[in-house]
Structure to design on (192 residues):
């Protein structure tokens, strides 16, 4: 039986129900199975390095657990819809700052492991291993597809410092650079 408590809210209400071991096991299995997929949804939906995609997924999961009684029969679909909702919300609430502490780290080989082919995975591993400054420039130009002037302004460097020649060369040594760039172009939604 559900009980409402006006002191604790998720969009106005939180449902409390008796968390049986079966419910806890089902919720844990769901988040274990869907975390990477939901992080990928949040990442591609937001397409902004200032959004913490793990927080988006955690907020969606908490909301789903609060309404578990009503959503347990369509839990995967409900979780994905909530991730979309919280991704949009995160985009509207993000700070207009571009300092290093506001740029969230992404491990591409983990995030895209189940959708990237082996050639692209080689490139994603190279990106993950890049030094931070090189990785941020590559992300700005190739992943988020910022023009050079925008990337330079956001990274607070000169326009001449946002070239991707060195990063492109690193990826080109192990795999097809064009395939990696096309992979990101195909998967990023641009926050729409």
């Amino acid at each position: 039986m559900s009980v409402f408590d006006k002191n604790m809210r998720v969009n106005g209400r939180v449902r409390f129900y008796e968390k049986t071991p079966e419910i806890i096991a089902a919720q844990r299995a769901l988040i274990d199975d869907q975390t990477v997929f939901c992080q990928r949804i949040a990442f591609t939906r937001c397409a902004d390095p200032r959004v913490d995609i793990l927080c988006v997924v955690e907020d969606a999961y908490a909301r789903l657990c609060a309404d578990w009684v009503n959503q347990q029969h369509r839990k995967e679909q409900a979780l994905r819809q909530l991730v979309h909702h919280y991704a949009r919300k995160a985009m509207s609430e993000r700070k207009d700052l571009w300092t290093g502490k506001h740029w969230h780290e992404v491990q591409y080989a983990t995030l895209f492991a189940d959708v990237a082919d082996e050639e692209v995975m080689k490139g994603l591993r190279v990106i993950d291993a890049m030094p931070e400054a090189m990785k941020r420039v590559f992300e700005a130009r190739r992943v988020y597809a910022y023009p050079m002037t925008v990337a330079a302004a956001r990274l607070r460097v000169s326009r001449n410092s946002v070239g991707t020649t060195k990063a492109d060369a690193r990826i080109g040594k192990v795999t097809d650079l064009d395939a990696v760039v096309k992979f990101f172009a195909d998967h990023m939604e641009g926050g729409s």
Observations:
- Residues 1-10 have pLDDT under 50 and may be disordered.
